[in-house]
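Cross-check.
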Amino acid sequence: MAENIVITGANGLLGQKLVNLYCNERAYNIVALARGSNRNANTKGYKYVDVDLTDFKKVSKIIDQIKPEVVINAAAMTNVDECEDKKEACDLINVRLVEELVTLCEAYNSYLLHISTDFIFDGKSGPYKEIDEPNPLNYYGLSKLKSEQIIEQSNLKYAIIRTILVYGMVDNMNKNNIVLWLKASIEDKKEVTIIDDQYRMPTFVDDLASACSSAVSKRAEGIYNVSSCELLSIYEMCQEIARVFKLDTSFIKRISTEELNQKAKRPAVTGFDLTKSHKMLELPLVSFAERLQVFKNQLSTSRLL
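Predicted model, tokenized:
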């Protein structure tokens, strides 16, 4: 009998990718939750529900009707500076929604898969293992840490997947990611200033979706790191993007964190130890450059290149 899977945040990059992935498999009945019109309307074989995920009574009613075996929470407020300015709004979606989902999952003995972030760390000793001590520098990171703690203190079967700087493409993008933003800026001959002293391991959304699917199918439990395997400064990432897409690097100007003076503090060096996810979730250990080429091929096929 097909399992019922609820995917929250279904209009986002990961949410759309998950819907596409699961709709190719007959073992699941997919119900996708997000606010507004369905950005993935070209994909058939699933149910889309337009709902404000902070309307917890409505969310509860939907979950009550479905009684899902699995809930994948890909919904979040992720704009780091906006979270700093709008703490209440951040808490509603990043913390309170998780509390509601945990309660509902406990009621129906559902498996919960939750997406978290490298920003729960302070960046002083990256790359990080799953067991390393969190210490967020900004409100976004704090909200995601709170959500992790709520899940860890529950009676659920769960997995938390932490990820970093997700990029990729779906048919109907609701916001840019670093690759598409840089590509569009340079093609428009706009100069961009890029931080050269913050280091990350960017994540191809296809790899993240596959890791989620693997966790669900295995009913993996605990915390898992998912990203590429190469630690790069954001400036180095942009240089690599320019190389792969044959962009003019003269438009890329470097700047330090201190000079940029962002509203919310960012960790200097994150990145992940991927040993556990490689073993348990069959996560491929791939470089940013390798996945950029795959992404470029996808864009070419979609005629967006």
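DSSP finds eleven helices and 13 strands in the chain. The first strand starts at residue 3 and ends at 8. Passed to J.P. for a second look.
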